[in-house]
Amino acid sequence: MKKIAIVTGASRGIGRAVAKRLAQDGFAVVVNYLSNASEAEEVVAEIKVIGGEAIAVKADVANQTDVERLFEETMKKFGSVDVVVHNSGIMPLSPIGKSDVELFDKVISTNLRGAFLVLAQAAQHIAVGGRIIAFSSSVLAKSFPSYTVHTLRRRRPSKAWCMCWRTNSADAILASMPSRPAQLQPNSF
After folding, report:
1. CB 123 within 8 A of CB 117
2. What is the residue range of 10's domain?
3. How far apart are CA 102 and CA 33, in angstroms?
4. What is the pTM assigned to this prediction?
5. Residues 6+ apart with CB under 8 A from 10
6. Within a domain: 154
7. Rounded Cα distance, 42 and 31, in Å
8. Would you say residue 36 has pLDDT above 90?
9. Is residue 121 part of a domain?
């Protein structure tokens, strides 16, 4: 039986590479995207070219209804979820002096609320023996003098939330991986 993987933020970058690798390893892949349907469909087409199976599902990870629908569509199409890779995150750069509260709220909503919503649905739907993987970014160690506080260093708060969730969840396994392939180690924070 084929294993099923959902990859959030899979239309480009790290998410795209993860989706394609999972397909190479025999997984059917749900390519989640927010804004660029053509990029998501390119990933699906690339997976199909190598003999894999994939679908693209548009869903905003910060929107509870969208995240629920992402998992519902996956269950409807494939019947199970074996792996969830939460990769979605944003890092808009803006000087904190601009006091752009809307941008700040978008970062919090995507990076924190998104992690909560995706991991909560994953915990409800993941098959026995499945895996939940939450990516964080190596940008945590970078220093952007006038941008640091406003961007929240991409995913530091979601990383802390994942640590707490992992510690308090007996029903699912959370593996956190740094974004540099040379340093991939499950459960390393």
Report:
1. no
2. 4-183
3. 21
4. 0.76
5. 16, 18, 19, 29, 30, 31, 32, 33, 40, 43, 85, 87
6. yes
7. 10
8. yes
9. yes
